[in-house]
Amino acid sequence: MRTISSKRGEVLITTPLQLFGSLLLYCRPKQTRFPSEDSTAMAKKDRAVDSDKVWVSLITNLNYLPGILTLNYCLRKVNSKYPLVALYTDSFPESGRAALAARGIPSQPVPFLAPSKSTDYTDDPRFNDCWTKLAIFSLTEYDRVVQLDSDMLVLRNMDELMDLDLDAPSVSATGNTKTSPRVFAASHACVCNPLKRSHYPTNWIPENCAFTSQHNDPDLAQTEGADPSFGLGKLNSGLLVVNPSQTLYEQIVECMESRGSEFLFPDQDLLAELYQGRWVALPYVYNALKTLRSPGIHDAIWRDDQVKNVHFILSPKPWDEIGADGEWKGKQESHKWWIDMNRSRIESERDQGIH
Question: Tell me, what is one Gene Ontology molecular-function annotation carried by this entry (predicted)?
Answer without folding.
Answer: glycosyltransferase activity
